[in-house]
């Protein structure tokens, strides 16, 4: 602690309690590879403008590459007295190559350094999350394709409403995931501007070439205003919010899977490899993957909230508060990456009880709207058709029968325009098949939708 790289103006060592609070090494160590990449670009630029000699540059880049390789292999363990990963790498470099190492931080601050590191890390993680969500979409589509004829009830207010298919239901989630991909992709583009060269807050007196470091690191350009460049955490807040929205989608699906797997629904049975048991009740098979996904959604929402709250009162430019961004965004990213593979496995292996879904779709008068529509075709105004159908439903409820079990006589008592073709109209599978407009549950409509999504992927 006495050896902090900024200790020159201090007469006392940092108190241990302050050190414990101030140090971020324990969590920002995962930025080491990106820190090394940022430093190599910075050093390359410094050599370009004549601040480092070619020999010094060679020593620095060689030293940094060695540090990265040793951390990768486990030969070098991150730890010890460094305050954060930036200090750790710099101290280790100087230990290895001597004086040239001490020149690396010329024209740079940890403020532009950490912002650069975090953006580079975020970019890599966005790539991984993008692939994971694409795999999840592929799984949902695979299962949907098997169930374009699997009729189930569609719900509103969790009351049976109109018949749909399982494919149609799963594709609803696919569309949510497609928007998640789009949101995260856009966030990735927005963040891709380099903070390097902004230094502490006001750039530097050295003629740094910010475009060069930006280019070397694969940024699309420079984050121009230096105050903004070092204090901007929009990308962290935005991506955390995008991940929270994604988790809300997974969580809604989790809720349904939990319900569907219950004996009360009996729509699905989870594979043994994707369920867990009880320590006391031998018969139990619990949907823990869905429950944990639903539960962990709270964490990710919390991470997004942490970041927004952390930022909301910060005066320009850098404040140490923002060091807190890392644990929150790391947690959000880790949680999402933990949930997706388990969730995808659960969905692709679940057994669908098509008979039970079909039975449920046949109850609850899910064909009542279709009867009203039938009457409209026969010339009855819709409001009146609604009333007539409602009365018939009421009668059926009393009798404990379905609409299609009503005799023609009884139907015609309520509306004499009803003919024998009504039974065809009331058939649940036909109710689905007739909804063949864009976005509807009819087999052709769902297959068209699947094809379009597959094209976009
Ligand atoms: N570890 C800090 C962070 O994560 C970077 C260091 C900035 N420190 C400073 N004294 N300006 O934000």
Automatic annotation (TrEMBL):
The primary site where this protein sits is cytoplasm
Q: What is this protein called?
A: Argininosuccinate lyase
The record's SUPFAM superfamilies line, in alphabetical order, gives: L-aspartase-like
Question: Which InterPro entries does its entry note?
Answer: Arg_succ_lyase_C, Argininosuccinate_lyase, Fumarase/histidase_N, Fumarate_lyase_CS, Fumarate_lyase_fam, Fumarate_lyase_N, L-Aspartase-like
A GO CC term attached to the entry:
cytosol
Q: Which Pfam family, any one, appears in the UniProt record?
A: Lyase_1
The segment(s) forming the Argininosuccinate lyase C-terminal domain are: 365-433
Q: State which pathway it belongs to.
A: Amino-acid biosynthesis; L-arginine biosynthesis; L-arginine from L-ornithine and carbamoyl phosphate: step 3/3
What range(s) does the Fumarate lyase N-terminal domain occupy?
A: 8-302
Q: Which NCBIfam families match?
A: argH
Q: Name one GO biological process term.
A: L-arginine biosynthetic process via ornithine
Molecular-function annotations in GO: argininosuccinate lyase activity
State its location(s): Cytoplasm
- Which reaction is recorded as catalysed by this protein? 2-(N(omega)-L-arginino)succinate = fumarate + L-arginine
Annotated EC: 4.3.2.1
């Amino acid at each position: 602690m006495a050896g902090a790289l900024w200790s020159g103006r201090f007469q006392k060592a940092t108190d241990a309690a302050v050190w414990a609070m101030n140090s971020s090494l324990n969590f920002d160590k995962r930025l080491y590879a990106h820190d090394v990449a940022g430093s190599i670009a910075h050093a390359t630029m410094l050599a370009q403008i004549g601040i480092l000699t070619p020999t010094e540059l060679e020593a620095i880049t060689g030293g940094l590459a060695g540090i990265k390789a040793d951390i990768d292999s486990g030969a070098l363990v991150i730890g010890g007295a460094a305050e954060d990963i930036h200090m750790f790498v710099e101290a280790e470099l100087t230990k290895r190559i001597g004086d040239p190492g001490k020149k690396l931080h010329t024209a740079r601050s940890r403020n532009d350094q950490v912002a650069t590191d975090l953006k580079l890390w975020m970019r890599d993680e966005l790539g991984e999350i993008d692939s994971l969500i694409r795999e999840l979409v592929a799984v949902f589509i695979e299962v949907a394709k098997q169930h374009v004829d699997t009729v189930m009830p569609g719900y509103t207010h969790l009351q049976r409403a109109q018949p749909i298919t399982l494919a149609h239901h799963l594709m609803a989630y696919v569309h949510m995931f497609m928007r998640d991909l789009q949101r995260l992709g856009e966030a990735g583009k927005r963040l891709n501007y380099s903070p390097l060269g902004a230094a502490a807050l006001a750039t530097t007196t050295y003629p740094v070439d910010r475009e060069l470091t930006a280019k070397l690191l694969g940024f699309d350009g420079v984050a121009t205003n230096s105050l903004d460049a070092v204090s901007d955490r929009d990308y962290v807040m935005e991506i955390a919010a995008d991940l929270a929205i994604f988790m809300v989608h997974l969580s809604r699906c989790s809720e349904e899977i939990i319900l569907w797997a219950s004996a009360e629904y009996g729509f699905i049975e989870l594979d043994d490899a994707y369920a867990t048991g009880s320590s006391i009740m031998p018969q139990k098979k619990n949907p823990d993957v869905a429950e944990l996904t639903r539960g962990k959604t709270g964490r990710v929402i919390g991470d997004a909230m942490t970041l927004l709250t952390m930022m909301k009162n910060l005066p320009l430019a850098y404040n140490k508060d923002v060091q807190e961004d890392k644990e929150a965004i790391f947690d959000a990213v880790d949680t999402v990456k933990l949930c997706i593979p388990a969730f995808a496995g659960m969905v692709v292996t679940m057994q669908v009880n098509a008979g039970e879904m079909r039975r449920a779709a046949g109850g609850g008068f899910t064909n009542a709207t279709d009867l009203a529509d039938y009457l409209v075709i026969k010339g009855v105004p819709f409001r009146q058709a609604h009333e007539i159908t409602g009365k018939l439903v009421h009668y059926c409820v009393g009798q404990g029968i379905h609409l299609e079990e009503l005799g023609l006589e009884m139907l015609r008592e309520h509306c004499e325009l009803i003919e024998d073709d009504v039974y065809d109209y009331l058939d649940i599978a036909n109710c689905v098949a007739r909804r063949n407009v864009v976005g509807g549950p009819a087999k052709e409509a769902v297959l068209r939708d699947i094809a379009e999504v597959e094209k976009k992927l």
